[in-house]
Amino acid sequence: MNYIGLNSPPVREERLGTGIAFGGTTCELRCAQKEGCINRANRAFSQTQGCQFTLSLGMLNSLRNAVTIMHGPIGCGACSIGSVGTSQTFKRLRDPNAEGLVWLNTNLNETDVIAGGENKLREAIRYADREFRPEVICVPISCVPSLIGDDVDSVLAEMQKETAATLIPIHCAGFKTKAMATAYDDVYHGVLRHLVEKPDRREDLVPDDLRDLRQKYQDSRTVNLLNVGSMSRQDETELERLLKAIDLNVRWLPCYSDAEDFRQALSSALNVSICGTHDDYFIEHLKTLYGIPFVIDVMPIGRRNTARWLLQIAEHFDLQDRAQQVIDVEDRELDAAFEQFRPALKDKRVFLGGGEIRVVATAEILQDLGMKVIGFKGHHYDRFAEPLFDSLEDVDDVLFDVATQQPFEQINLVRRLKPDLYIGHTGGGNLSAKQGLPLLPLFGPTYNYMGYSGAFDVARRIRRVLANGQFNKKIAQHCPLPYRASWYEKDPFHYIKDRQEPRGPAPHPAGD
Ligand code: SF4
Question: Residue 91 sits in which domain range?
Answer without folding.
Answer: 50-177
